[in-house]
Design a protein that fits this description.
This protein is mainly beta. It has 1 helix and 6 strands. The relative contact order is 0.36. About 10% of the residues have low confidence. It comes from Gopherus evgoodei.
Length: about 130
Amino acid sequence: MTFGVKLVFFLQAFCLLTFHTHGQKKEDATAEEVKIEVLHVPKECTPKSKKGDLLNAHYDGYLAGDGSKFYCSRTQNEGHPKWFVLGVGQVIKGLDIAMTNMCPGEKRKVTIPPSLAYGQQGYGSA
């Protein structure tokens, strides 16, 4: 696999379970490195996702350079969306950043630099 490439993800949030938390820290400046293009926002856009929320989402990963698909959540877990807690490292850092402040049903295209994805080794390396 090509090393150190930017990744492009198409995201769709289906369900958002929010939890009240206190004393959350703001995300650092790395959020500026993730490029987010909002493709669809539903008319009802509440609540918006935040760190600690349980999300249910599908996402597809492509290499930004040649557009080849390297991951599809629809082919994992018998096609069911992935459940994860936002902002605690259950997905790559770039997805934690990209899915913050997202509403249920929203669709986004995001471009994530290697430093916030799989690093210089790339996806699937040991």
